[in-house]
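EI: anyone free to look at a 333-residue chain?
SC: sure, send it
EI:
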Amino acid sequence: MQRHPLRAVLIVVGTAIHTLLAANVAHAADMDYRLQPRKLADHAYALIGRTEDFDRNNGANIVNTGFFIGPSGVVVIDSGPSLRYGQQARKAIEALAPGKPIALVVDTHHHPDHFLGNQAYKDAPIGALPATTQSIHRDGNSFAENLYRMSGDWMLGTEALAPNRNLAAGPLAVGGLNLRLIAAAGHTGADLAVYEPASGVLFTGDLVFNLRAPTTPHADIAEWLGALDQMESITKEPGFKLLVPGHGEPATDAAPIVRTRRWLLWLRGTLQDAAKAGMDMVELMRHPLPAEFADVPLAHSEFRRSVEHLYPEMEDAVLGKAMPQPAPPKPRY
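SC: here you go
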C-alpha cells in the first residue's frame, strides 16, 4: 500500500514534536543543582560550587554559599545564583534543621551569583551593607538578564530581590548565634565577611579565592589588599578553624589569602609596567602568566577581563593622560 505523502510528513512532524517535548521535560527534571551541604563544624555547613565560569551546564553554580544552624534559627551566607538554587538550598537546610526558621540571609556583596537566590527567602530577613543593597536595587535585574544569557533556563523566574535589613561591622546576635561581621571593600565597593567564633568558621565572600583566579569587574586593588590583611588577622586568632572563600575549596589556614594577595600584587604590577611601557590593551592581553598562576582555573580568561576592567584607569594613573579616553567596557556581571 502506498503511504500518502502528507500523512508521512505529519507523522514525521508529530514524532519530532513529541521528541522535543520529551527532551524539554527531561531537561527541566534534570535541572537539579544536586546540592550537598558539607559539614564544617557542629552547626556550620557550606555548599561548594565549581571553579568554572557561568554556563548552561553548571547553571551558574560556581559559588560557595553556606549556613549556620543556631539554637533558634538558621543564618544563611549568600543565597546563590538563581531562584532555583535558592529553593534547593533552602530545602537542603530544612532537611538538616527541621522546623527552624531562617533568622537571617546575609548577602556578602552585590555580584549575581551571591544574591540572586534571595527570592527563595522572601519571607525572611535579608541583610547586607547599605552600599550592597543600593547596588542590587540599581543593577540586580540587569545582572539576572546577563546570567540568563549565559546560563539559560536554570534562571527561569529569577528576579533581583534586594535586602530588607542594613548590616554593619561588629557583633551580631541572631538565631541564637553570636556572629562577627567584618565590613571591607576591594572586590567591590562593599564586601562583608562573616565569622562565627563558636565554630571558628569564617566566610569571606569574594574577598578570597582559592585556586581560582579572582574576578575584578568592580575591584579596587589597593582596598582589596587591605581587606585581605583583615581576613588574615582572623586566621591568627586562637579559635579559628576554617576559612570558606567565595570560590574554591575551604582551607584550615591563610594559604588562600596569601595566593589571592600574590595574584593581586602580580596583576597590579603587570598593569603598571605595561602602562609605563606604552602597551595597548591587545598587546597586554597576550602577556604570559607566571608559572605559579598558569594552571589556576580561569587564570587566562580572568586576566584578560581584568585588563578590560582595570587597565584604562591604570594608564591614566601611570601616564597622567590629559586626553579624553573612551569609556571602558561595562563589567560582564
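EI: Residues 65 and 147 are 18 Å apart (CA to CA).
SC: 👍
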